[in-house]
Amino acid sequence: YLTVSIEPLPPVVVGDAVTLKCNFKTDGKMREIVWYRVTDGGTIKQKIFTFDAMFSTNFSQMENYRKREDLVYQSTVRLPEVRISDNGPYECHVGIYDRATREKVVLASGNVFLNVMAPPTSISVLAADTPAPFSRYQAQNFTLVCVVSGGKPAPLVYFKRDGEPIEATPLPEPPAGASSWAPRNLLHRDLDDTKVPKSLAADGELGMGNPFPTADPPRGLAAERDSVTESIPETVVSREFPRWVHMAEPIYYFRHTHAPVSDGTVEARATLTWTLNPQIDNEALFSCEVKHPALSMPMQSEVTLVAPKGPKITMTPTRARVGDTVRILVQGFQNEVFPEPLFTWTRVGSRLLDGSAEHDGKELVLERVPAELNGSMYRCTAQNPLGSTDTHTRLIVFENPNIPRGTEDSNGSLPGHCGFRFVLALTLTVILELT
Fold it and tell me: Which terminus has fewer CB within 10 Å in the chain: N or C?
C-alpha cells in the first residue's frame, strides 16, 4: 500500500533549472518525505529536502471507513541553476505509519540520476615542442595538438585542412619521434641553398636537399663567409627550404586522449601528425573542431602554417656609447608566424662579446660595449619548420665623454689601476697644499 516512482531525467546543461519530482501512492498515513543526494558510490547520503507530516498533514476526506481512496502525493525539489557538482544520483524516501501500530513506519524509495553536461570552455591549437631546431634538409614529422578544456562529457574532436575534413589513420600510441622533436644539429647556415654558388647548384651537389657529410662548410664557402663582413646589406635576407617535394599525398595520423579534471570536466587532447612538406604546407589553414551535446554548433580554433618573414629589430639605446649595455630585440614580423620560431644570434665574421659562437632567444644583450665593436654586424636567424629568414643590424658605438679616450680595456671598462692613480694624485696634491 505504498509505491514510489521518479520519472527519469534527460541530460541537462550547466546553468539550467531542474525539477526533481517524487511521485508516490499510498492509502496510509503520511509520516515524512526526504530527498537525498548520493555521493561516493552510495556510501554517503546528504539530506537535501525534508517534509515532516507531523506538522503539515495532507489527507483525503473519506465518506466511510470501508471506502478508501488512494491518495496521490507529489514532492518536488527545484535546482534553479545546476552546477557540475550537482551531477549524480538522487533518492526520494517516503515513510508512512504502519496499519497495525503507529509506532512503526513503513518506508519506500525511488532514485533518479541527474546527468549534468558542460560545454567546453576553451579550445586551442599549438605545435608540439616548439620552438625547436628543425632540419631544412630532410623530411621530418610535424605534430599539431588541439587542447579542449572544460567539457563534460568528453567532446568529439577532429581536424580540417583548408575547410575540408582530414581522413587520418587513428593511432593508439603516437608514432616514434612524433610526440616530441629531439634536438637536431642544423647544418651551418651558410650552406643554405640560396647562398650556394650557382656552379655547385648546377652540378646537383645539393640536389633533393641532401646534407653535406659534416656540419663544417667547404673551404670556398668558409672563405666567402669571412670576407662578407662589409658586403652584407643591412636589409632582410630571406631564405627558403630546398625544393624537395613528396610525390604522394601526405598521410595523416590521429590520436585522441582525454583526462579527467578535479572539477568533474574532461581535458581532451587530439594530435595530428604527418610528414611536413614546406612546399605545399606553407600557408595551409588547419582547424580543430569540436562537437559536443551541450553545444548548438561546433566550436573551432584555427591556425595557418607560415614561415617567418621580415623580422622587426630594435636596438636600445639608439645611440650607444662606450660602456653602455646594448639590447637588440626582435619585436615581431611582417606576417603572422606559426609555429613559434627559434631565434639565433651571431656576429658576422667573429664571435659574440661573451666569446660564444651564437645566442638563442629573442633578445641579444651586449653588456658594457667597447669601442672595438663599432661597425660590427649582427645577424638574427628566425626559423620554424616552414622556413627561415635572416636580418642584419650594424652596431655603431660612439665615444663616451665620461670615459677618457684610450683608457678602456677590451671589455669597455676602466683598468683596475686607474682608481689607484687618481687616489695617488689626490694625496700628493693635499700634501703640497699643506706644506
Answer: C
